[in-house]
Design goal:
alpha/beta, two-stranded antiparallel ribbon, single chain, 273 residues, TIM Barrel, binds adenosine-2'-5'-diphosphate
Length: 273
Amino acid sequence: MTADGRARVLADGNEIPLLGLGVWQVPNGRESVDAVRWALELGYRHIDTAQAYGNEESVGRGLRESGVPREDVFITTKFFPTRKDPVAEAERSLQRLGVDYVDLYVIHWPGGGPTWAWPGMERARDAGFARSIGVSNFSADELRLLLPTATVPPVVDQVQFSPYEYRKALLDACGENGLALEAYSPLGTGRYLASDTVARVAERHGRTPAQVLLRWSIERGIPVIPKSTHRERIAENAQLFDFRLSEQDVAELDALDRTGGTDRALERKWWSS
Ligand code: A2P
């Protein structure tokens, strides 16, 4: 962790802010531009997009409209693994984003197997297109297949992670292999905001369910990328560094896990079904 407790130092020495804005399912255009601009105005310094989302152009526009210097923002994009060449696709991402590099470039899912795209990811890093490289939706088994083939190892595995998907064995496997697990859908795409347990914990602290769900990851040093297109919710989701969950809160939240502490990244692989 960094001294201010707001970022995590990755295995390659780069720093990832624990709080980021996710823009999955936000259409290219004004909605994405505004969400990114508001987040940056409200103090976020980390934006997570993907080639598959189709909104990289708007992310770049939001960044420019915010006036926040590019070098102050951690930008992630993801290689769309139905395409062939991670290097060429990274270059296209940079053009759409209007930046010279991304901070993190990850394989979006292990489509076609966990190893084939990695040499291209390493080349994209060597070319200066990405500061750090990693993966997403990789299980512990897929990491074990990839790691021995890597010259530059992945530093992040971005997976669906929340109290309801507390993939303890995958978290441990990431830790043992020098990867930071990063949590997408930390609110369960909104579903977990109605949880009685989360509401009970939130009430104890005078906080909101979203803040409790996000704080649960942050306290473990796990970066989170909640998505919202509403300014007030984007603001709410950033108020995470002025309270602490108790041991009892954490125990109650941990008990929500429905994955059996799995080392898998997903219950269903949508790309191979
Ligand atoms: P919206 O974008 O309309 O604000 P996840 O990050 O797990 O994918 O969850 C995103 C979903 O949760 C979106 O539907 C988003 O709605 C909603 N959401 C995000 N933050 C909040 C919040 N603080 N309160 C209520 N709903 C939220």
